[in-house]
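Morning F.,

Quick status update on the modeling queue. The single chain you submitted on Monday has been processed. Sequence for confirmation:
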Amino acid sequence: MKIWTLLENTRQAEAFTAEHGLSLYIETGRRRILLDTGQTGAFAANAAALGVDLAAVDTAVLSHGHYDHGGGLERFLALNRTAALYLSRHAFEAHYHGPEKYIGLDPALQRHAGRLVYVADAAVSLGDSLKLVPAAGLEQRYPARAGGLQVMENGVLQPEDFRHEIYLLAEENGRRVLFSGCSHKGVRNLLDWFRPDVFVGGFHCTGLDPASSGAQELAGMAAAMQRSDAVFYTGHCTGQAAYEYFKQRLGPRLHRLSTGRMFTL
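Structure tokens below.
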């Protein structure tokens, strides 16, 4: 399995564009998968610079309904005329950060109804040992931190429960590889649910200070990660302070995602 980081908050070289967001291109033995598109079309320019042909993607997945993961979808759908786009049935709900900042998807994307495949609250097999698992169908053991994120329900903003989050699980060469855009439901829950050998994605730790208010939560996450046998690739919403904290505890089992980086599992 090969994975290209088409877009992330940081970059490997000045030739690439970085922005707050995430986009990954994944090649398995038989499949070409795009997971998320960042917040603009920058992921597509980076893909071209890396020699990645987005027109050849056979499956696209949106991990959740936030602008920094789905803002480039219009660009992808223009470049690729055939791939189905899988997303949660909750993805187009109105998501906010605070009372005024809308962070959801562009509702106009719904005009591409023929390309959109909505995932309900049960796992969906994509074939070739690939599976989409919605958060809405999983019982969480550990609390998930909303972090100021909200969803509009009946005209009233409520703390997010992240029911619009879905995960891509790929099994190849006897290993379970979990892809999670932001892990809003909590890294500890995802490790409990999937028992992955490799975990790729953001950890939703931005703003958590290991030396003060975030100490307890980060310690719990680190302990769960240490108990697991997984190798981790992370960035985007993990935050630099949390990344350095985890790196001290996980050492070579933790790797940094960065725009332009390709790695093989």
